[in-house]
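Why does residue order matter? Because the sequence determines the fold. Keep that principle in mind as you read this record.
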Amino acid sequence: MLWQSINSVNSLNMPMTKTNLLLLSGLLAIATVVGGCAGGGRYDMADDTAPKNAPDVTKVENAQPRYEPYSRHGNRRYTVLGKTYDVMPSGQGYSYRGVASWYGAKFHGHLTSNGERYDMYSMTAAHKTLPLPSYVKVTNLDNQKQVIVRVNDRGPFHGGRIIDLSYAAAAKLDMLKTGTANVQVEAIYISSPQLPQLANLDAKPQYYIQLLASQDKARLVTLANELEAKHQLKSRLQQQGELYRLQLGPVGQHRLAEELLQMLRADGYPQSFLVMPLKAD
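Structure:
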């Protein structure tokens, strides 16, 4: 209806005078109202549902946490259903338990509050007050399954729900049939653009980077404190006889461990090396 109105004006070969522009604006306004009534609003579907003939999403990888500046879109105070929400200045320290829901085909391809297209097959989520974008780890407390998602939308605005997960994320948490689940939501806060998130996020193999070995335990403890603050990682001292080995970690992904290793070598520790993966202590 909207494009028909535009074409009807163009077919007249009318010059774009002020009068004709006003006429075009009127036609567009009418077409928008009529189109909205006929099409049921912004979304093609009245009710949300799971996709038909959905691909296997069990192999979809978790979102990969990294530093991202907060978007200009979706990070201002806003009001929905008569309630006003203030966006948190950062996600640092956020940890909350509540009910998660999920959203799917109705919203697929439409714009999120972050100005991106919602993809129900990606690992994303909606949250009412976390800054956009943010990364969070979500644990299904009923089965202990976990996912890492990127928050790029606002919601859910149903009472008692704290996060709305994409179809793929909900599938990996095994909550599609129930529709909701009791979850723990923990923000993965990354303050610096210099280093990706290196925290232990899941049960993947754990890597450590050994920087040096020395008999001077006090010196290594001091150095460990400095490195922990700089790289936002834990460290450990492993003793063998009178010798102490300083290792930084754990790091849950090989790629991130390699990036940290190269950074440490360039930062004055050329003898650093990667320790074989170990289970978390």
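DSSP finds five helices and twelve strands in the chain.
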